[in-house]
Every structure is written in structure tokens, then in C-alpha cells.
Design brief:
The protein has about 350 residues and is α/β, with parallel strands linked by helices. It has twelve helices and twelve strands. It has a domain of about 170 residues. One of its GO terms (molecular function) is iron-sulfur cluster binding.
């Protein structure tokens, strides 16, 4: 693995003890959201091994997004690489190949943990070159994946951003964000904060198959509900909408209704796109679970990573009409909502398409 030299277990101390002592002194689990520490040897790609947390010390934490990327944000923070949510379609899969790991099972099970993320961010925010621009989180892998339950890196990160009154946005499928609800509310009182939750469909059998490591759609909608109760607007990404699986009029209506009932401030539909890395892994899953759909996908995605524009427009219009019929209108009540309104729906769609 490319970052082997930065690993803490290579001659350094572990960030957390491997075993966790529970009630009555009983040792339970690995304490890393089901991830164990790797052995102190170089990590190779493609080994069929247990899921592991690879603790490293990062050299930098605020990342500049290349201008040619077309993304609606310039700066990101990613405390983790790889994602135990294991979404079959995740665009970020190919980024694991930059570390000499594979974009399939390695992406799901070799989770890079930047254990010094909070301290490093605080230092970089205080640096003379930093100008207080907004920082996007959740744009590569989910910061509230299972490992966050043990490492708690996001709480340190949000505290640092709050203390500097620095704007930020979070995109997530993780319910662990509720642990930081109080802190996010405080931060939103100091600077613009934008929260978005990804719920592509409320079809539970489909969710179990295509997003096996994520909380259920209903639990994610409860996140929306809890933030709304605090007066913080949340955008819901219907992302991704899967051709032949979650794009029927009835399924779109069911999902939009659930989103509205949860109290979302807006809904942004995003049709599946398949970049290298994700394309192969998704095709493998489709071949196993829904082989009858292969001809449809080969037709839709034969010329591009994206579905045809006419198809995307049709889905987008359907979702907008369904939302309007349910009376969904943006009513900003909080700075979290104001920053989202300023960005506009096109920006939100671009940002959230990453999930």
C-alpha cells in the first residue's frame, strides 16, 4: 500500500487500544466498528482478509479540488479513505487504486483512518494562508461510516471549524451524525453550515442488496427529522436513482413522500453514473442479483459514464412534480439552509451526486 510508511503500527503507537473493556471488565470486540488492526507487514491489494482499520498520520488534511473537476466546491476534508458502507455504485472506489489497493473489496474493507485529522485541521485553519473558505465533507467517502463510531474524528473536526467560525457542508448516509447534532447546531450559529442526507430509495430489499453497510433508509430519514426538529434544514439527495430498480413512477412517489414526511427542506434527484472502478463493481453486482437488467444498462451507459440526458431530465421532472404536489417548498429557517439556498439546486445536485 502506498501509505505504508505513514502507518502507526509500523513502529509507532496505536491511536486506540485494540481491545475495548466493557462492563464487568469483559473484553469485547475490536472497538473499531467491526474493523481490526492489520498485522505490521505491508498491505497488499486483493487479499481476501477481514476488514481492517489502517491508522495513519496524515501530512495534510485540507485538500484543494482541481479546478477542472467541475465540482461546486474548492476545499475538502476527508478523515477516512475507503468506506465500509460498501455501496456497489460508489464513485470513489477508483481512488483506492491510488493507494495501490483495489476498487472492489479493498475499498470496502481496507479503511484508512487519518487519526491526527482533528489536530492537523486546527493547525491548518490557523495558518496564515487560510482564508476561511467553505470546506466540504463527505464528498469522497462517508465521514460517518462505522469506524467513526470509535474514532470520533468528526467531532474534533467540527469543533475546530466551529471555533474558527469556518463554513462547512456535510454529506452522509450515516446516522452517527446525530451524535454531533449539538455541535453542528452550535457551529451553524457561527457560520453557514449545510447538511445533506442521501436516500436513493425506500425499497428495503434493494437497500440491503446495493448498500449493504449503510443504515436503513428509514433510519436516515430519522436523521432528517431530528435536524428539522432543531430548526436546521436538510437537503435529501435521491441519489442515486437506479435505472430499472428505483426509477418507476410508483417507487419515485413512495420515496418522495417519505422524504417530505421526514421534514426535508428540499429534494435533489441524481441518476446513477458509473465511473471506472464503480462501473466494474456495479456490473458484477448487477450480473449476480439482476442479470435481466444487463441489456438495459449496456444500452444506457454504452457511450458515457452518465445516463442519456433525456432520461435524466425525465426523472428530474418527475421528482420535482411529485415534491411540488406534496407542497415541498424551501423555507430557510437557519444558516444551514441559507448556505444551501445560496448554492442553488444545480450546485447541490453536482455536489451530492458524489453519493
Amino acid at each position: 500500500m502506498k501509505w505504508d510508511a505513514q502507518r502507526l503500527d509500523e513502529g509507532g503507537d496505536q491511536a486506540l487500544p485494540l481491545e475495548v473493556t466493557g462492563r464487568g471488565g469483559v473484553v469485547r470486540g475490536g472497538g473499531r466498528g467491526g474493523l481490526r488492526l492489520p498485522p505490521p507487514v505491508p498491505i497488499e491489494a486483493g487479499t481476501d482478509d477481514e476488514a481492517m482499520a489502517i491508522e495513519i498520520t496524515a501530512k495534510t488534511i485540507i485538500n484543494r479540488v482541481p479546478g477542472q473537476s467541475g465540482m461546486p466546491f474548492e476545499w475538502t476534508v476527508n478523515p477516512y479513505r475507503g468506506c465500509s458502507h460498501a455501496c456497489r455504485y460508489c464513485f470513489a472506489r477508483n481512488t483506492h487504486t491510488y493507494l495501490d489497493l483495489d476498487s472492489g473489496r479493498d475499498f470496502d474493507t481496507r479503511i484508512i483512518v487519518k487519526v491526527n485529522a482533528g489536530a492537523l485541521l486546527r493547525r491548518e485553519l490557523a495558518g496564515p494562508r487560510w482564508r476561511g473558505e467553505s470546506i466540504a465533507m463527505g464528498t469522497n467517502t462517508d465521514p460517518y461510516q462505522r469506524a467513526e463510531g470509535r474514532y470520533g474524528l468528526m467531532r474534533e473536526i467540527i469543533t475546530a471549524l466551529r471555533d474558527r467560525a469556518n463554513p462547512f457542508s456535510i454529506l452522509t448516509k450515516g446516522t452517527l451524525i446525530l451524535r454531533d447534532l449539538d455541535l453542528i447546531t452550535e457551529a451553524a450559529g457561527q457560520a453557514p453550515v449545510s447538511i445533506a442526507v442521501s436516500v436513493g430509495s425506500v425499497d428495503e430489499p434493494l437497500w440491503r442488496s446495493v448498500e449493504p453497510g449503510t443504515p436503513s433508509p428509514n433510519r436516515r430519514l430519522d436523521v432528517v427529522r431530528r435536524f428539522a426538529e432543531r430548526g436546521i434544514d436538510v437537503t435529501v439527495l435521491m441519489a442515486p436513482i437506479l435505472p430499472g430498480l428505483s426509477d418507476s413512477p410508483a417507487e419515485l412517489a413512495r420515496t418522495v413522500s417519505a422524504v417530505v414526511d421526514a421534514g426535508a427542506s428540499s429534494v435533489v434527484p441524481v441518476v446513477l453514473h458509473l465511473r471506472p472502478g464503480a462501473r466494474e463493481w456495479y456490473h458484477r453486482w448487477l450480473s449476480s442479483d439482476f442479470p435481466e437488467l444487463l441489456p438495459q444498462y449496456e444500452q444506457l451507459y454504452r457511450a458515457s459514464h452518465y445516463a442519456p440526458k433525456a432520461y435524466q431530465r425525465r426523472i428530474t421532472e418527475q421528482v420535482r412534480e411529485l415534491a411540488a404536489a406534496r407542497g415541498l417548498r424551501r423555507r430557510p429557517r437557519h444558516r444551514a439552509a441559507e448556505s444551501e439556498s445560496a448554492a442553488g439546486p444545480e450546485t447541490a445536485a453536482g455536489q451530492l451526486s458524489l453519493l
